[in-house]
Write a structure and sequence with these properties.
Blueprint lengths: L1 E7 L3 H10 L7 E4 L8 H4 L4 H5 L10 E6 L5 E5 L21 H9 L7 H11 E3 L13 E4 L6 H12 L15 E4 L2 E2 L13 H6 L8 E4 L6 E5 L2 E6 L4 E10 L5 H8 L2 E2 L1 H6 L6 E2 L11 E9 L9 H17 L9 E7 L10 E6 L15 E8 L7 E4 L8 E4 L6 H18 L8 E4 L7 H11 L1 E2 L29 E3 L14 H21 L2
Parallel strand pairs: 1-2, 1-12, 2-9, 5-6, 12-23, 13-14
Antiparallel strand pairs: 3-4, 6-8, 7-16, 10-11, 11-12, 15-18, 15-21, 15-22, 16-17, 17-18, 19-20
Helix pairs in contact: 1-13, 5-13, 11-12
């Protein structure tokens, strides 16, 4: 089989890429996805998010683990990643956050010319069909439905009030001119039509409407084994029992872990890593797999005195069952919730140019990614440090493509990260002790004596990812850059990377919307290259 373009990975970026490239009826496009079709009830129904995130069982989830983390008492972290069309946009909490404009200006300063805020803002706006309508900060006509929550819990509004009581100002738009403050998140969710109340994943927004095009082929439950490279050019992809060839370009959009893994399996990466697994180097690129960054997250949970939240007790499950029935009928109610209904962006200390902490307030008890269950109704508040100094790496466990990649986030390897997260935890404690939350506030799940030593110990014992890994194939101009600002892999013709792995630094927020923006820009770059021959 032969196509003009082959896209490996049907996640947030890959779905946008496939839809945009196939708009040219003269170009043939093949999208390869290791997971399923991305339209089952677990994905469509927001109320079933916990069933996928835990990875027990593995529903639409790679459910990766890290190597033991010295900064976390030698624990192996858990890394949920979406395995279906839509990628992690098919299993996450649907929050729509673009990050701070300064984040993108910083990318450009680090060598990613053309990726400053003024460059990327029009692309965000073109993708977005925001319920707020179109203006300087929002797009109103794009395919991605961005909506207000239909029925946030009373406690979520009380959380915003509690933030105000500790001098965190209200903010009803985290994607507006000011990021600082507390408010309710907007979500990527259908707000009208036959899919009202369902998740609006990247697949639902961009790919599914394009599936009838005769020039678009989508292969699900199909895993790429390695790239086919001839005379320094990517010309195809080797699958388990066949080979698919590309006339123009191959694009890797497998995500922060799978994209560097496939490059390494294809002989592209650090020489010592390749030779350690018996792989002959095709192109030595020391930056492949390096620069891994993620938002380390610490969670404080309380049991609730009121019974209007999510609990795994008989009363709570019955309430959730009634909510599921309402959702099927109207697309509204608790079953439409993202669970992380409210949040805040906060500066941990004076003098910072933008928030360095993000809070996610969840209407249930979240312990170890929902892998440690509690019967009681309760609530949780996550806090993560948005700009970690720690860096990790992705490598191979073996040369077998079926093996998971080796993931080492290097959490808390930079001493300053613990100090920032501790300041964030203290702020979160103040919010949770504020008067507005008193009607719900029951016992804290993991109490400690309040000392800095006890807090640091609790962070090392329980903190883990909030699911925002980036950076393992970063763009730039230096020797450690894997792709240039046009997303072309250095030294290999006909090959690009278009996913969150190209980010030079993690943004200050959730990474799903930026990944879609990267996919849209990559498609435009490729279409331009086809027109100009450059």
């Amino acid at each position: 089989m032969e196509f003009d373009y082959i896209i490996i990975g049907g996640g947030a970026s890959g779905c946008v890429l496939a839809a945009r490239l196939s708009e040219d009826a003269a170009a043939t496009v093949c999208l390869i996805e290791a997971g399923g079709g991305g339209d089952d009830i677990f994905i469509r129904a927001p109320g079933l998010i916990p069933a996928m995130i835990s990875g027990r069982p593995r529903i639409n989830n790679y459910a990766y683990h890290t190597v033991p983390q010295p900064g976390l008492n030698g624990r192996r972290g858990f890394q949920p990643r979406g395995r279906a069309l839509g990628g992690s946009s098919a299993i996450n909490a649907m929050l729509y956050v673009r990050g701070h404009p300064r984040d993108y200006d910083e990318w450009a300063e680090l060598g990613a010319e053309g990726w400053a805020w003024d460059d990327v803002r029009p692309w965000f706006l073109a993708l977005e069909g925001n319920q707020r309508g179109g203006d300087d900060w929002h797009g109103g006509a794009g395919p991605l439905q961005v909506s207000a929550q239909s029925a946030p819990r009373r406690i979520s509004r009380a959380f915003v009030q509690a933030c105000g009581q500790v001098q965190i100002a209200p903010n009803d738009d985290f994607n507006g001119p000011v990021q600082d403050g507390a408010g309710l998140f907007q979500v990527k969710q259908f707000r009208d039509g036959p899919r009202k109340g369902e998740r609006c994943s990247a697949a639902a927004a961009f790919l599914f409407p394009a599936l009838g095009r005769p020039n678009l082929t989508v292969l699900t439950r199909t895993r790429a084994q390695r790239l086919v490279i001839e005379d320094g050019r990517a010309v195809g992809v080797q699958l388990r029992n066949r080979r698919i060839m590309a006339r123009r370009e191959v694009v890797l959009a497998g995500g922060v872990f799978n994209t560097p893994q496939l490059l390494l399996l294809s002989g592209i990466g650090p020489e010592e890593e390749l030779r350690a697994h018996g792989i002959a180097p095709v192109r030595v690129l020391p930056g492949v797999g390096a620069n891994l960054q993620d938002h380390l997250d610490y969670t404080i949970s309380h049991k609730s005195l009121r019974r209007d939240l999510v609990g795994l007790n008989p009363r709570g499950l019955a309430r959730l069952g009634r909510a599921a029935w309402r959702w099927r009928k109207t697309g509204t109610g608790m079953f439409a919730t993202p669970y992380a209904e409210a949040g805040a962006f906060v500066r941990s200390r004076p003098g910072l140019d933008r928030p360095d902490l993000q809070l996610h307030f969840v209407i249930g008890i979240v312990d170890d990614h929902m892998r440690r269950l509690h019967l009681a109704d309760g609530y949780s508040c996550h806090v993560c440090a948005l700009r970690p100094e720690s860096r990790g790496r992705v490598g191979l466990n073996s040369a077998d493509p079926a093996d998971p990649p080796r993931i080492d986030p290097g959490f808390l390897s930079a001493p300053g990260d613990l100090a920032t997260l501790m300041r964030g935890a203290r702020i979160t404690e103040q919010v949770l002790e504020a008067e507005a939350l008193a009607p719900w506030r029951g016992a804290r799940l993991y109490p400690h004596d309040g000392s800095d030593a006890a807090l640091a110990a609790d962070i090392r014992a329980r903190a883990d990812t909030i699911y925002h890994p980036v950076g393992t194939c970063r763009m730039g101009r230096d020797e450690m850059a894997v792709v240039d600002p046009q997303l072309r892999v250095r030294g290999i013709a006909g090959l690009r990377v278009a996913d969150a792995s190209v980010m030079p630094r993690v943004i200050g927020g959730n990474t799903g919307a930026p990944a879609m923006m990267i996919g849209a820009r990559a498609a435009a770059m490729m279409a331009d290259a086809a027109r100009t021959g450059v």
